[in-house]
UniProtKB/TrEMBL annotation:
Belongs to the HAD-like hydrolase superfamily. CbbY/CbbZ/Gph/YieH family. Pathway: Organic acid metabolism; glycolate biosynthesis; glycolate from 2-phosphoglycolate: step 1/1. It comes from Thioclava kandeliae. Pfam families: Hydrolase. InterPro entries: HAD-like_hydrolase_sf, HAD-like_sf, HAD-SF_hydro_IA, HAD_sf, PGP-like_dom2. It catalyses: 2-phosphoglycolate + H2O = glycolate + phosphate. This is phosphoglycolate phosphatase.
Length: 224
């Protein structure tokens, strides 16, 4: 069965503002003036919690940054869990595109480096959980993307064939994952990197979800 696998943060939904708010809450609890900006620092959010904490602590001049990151990481997850969908929104057209893919007979799955429990909670709050046949998070398996195992697991769990699958993502991690598995990769250009992401030379790119169903049909045609 043909399967379309989606990254979550920065691909299906713009989660940056809520992620950055969680990091800023940690800085505030330490009495630091350092803050990450929802617009200027959006790209940092998509590199994960530790990357956000590291950036803030560097700006604040913290002496032992790595130790501070480990001290605050669980607190960051807690803040995020409590305010996971305050500002987060699906990218325009995402829901309609997924519905069109499913109507055409494609399986759909999520493979994300967000912890599984948070990913499950977010897709539920966004109202899109029924649109996916599988969800694999950062801690579902012992490894995470770009290791191929989580991607493969997402396709298998969805009831698909890895050799007849495609990855939709937004970062170098997604590109490397697709290369490791040996499947096509579509990278979105509506994220913080814009068209700069094209330096990774994906098999295709998209600036709008409106073109995704046709794009998938071209790259992953249905078998008769």
């Amino acid at each position: 069965m043909e399967t379309v696998v989606f990254d979550l943060d920065g691909t299906l939904a713009d989660t940056s503002a809520d992620l950055l708010a969680a990091a800023n809450a940690c800085f505030a609890e330490r009495g630091l003036e350092a803050r990450l900006d929802p617009e200027a620092d959006a790209l940092i959010a998509f590199h994960g919690g530790r990357a956000m904490l590291r950036e803030g602590f560097e700006r604040a001049g913290i002496a032992d940054i790595e130790a501070a990151i480990e001290e605050d990481f669980e607190a960051l997850l807690g803040h995020y869990d409590q305010h996971i969908c305050v500002h987060t929104q699906l990218y325009p057209g995402a829901r309609a595109a997924i519905e069109a893919l499913r109507a055409a007979g494609y399986k759909t799955a999520i493979c994300t480096n967000k912890p599984e429990a948070l990913a499950v909670k977010l897709v539920a709050e966004l109202g899109i959980a029924p649109l996916f046949d599988a969800l694999i998070g950062a801690d579902t398996l012992p490894t995470r993307k770009p290791d191929p195992a989580p991607y493969i697991a997402s396709v298998v769990q969805a009831g698909g064939d890895v050799g007849r699958s495609i990855l939709i993502g937004d970062t170098v991690t997604d590109r490397k994952t697709a290369e490791a598995v040996g499947v096509p990769c579509v990278l979105v250009t509506f994220g913080p990197e814009g068209e700069e992401i094209l330096r990774l030379k994906p098999e295709a790119s998209m600036a709008s979800y409106a073109i995704l169903p046709n794009l998938v049909a071209q790259l992953l045609p249905k078998l008769a």
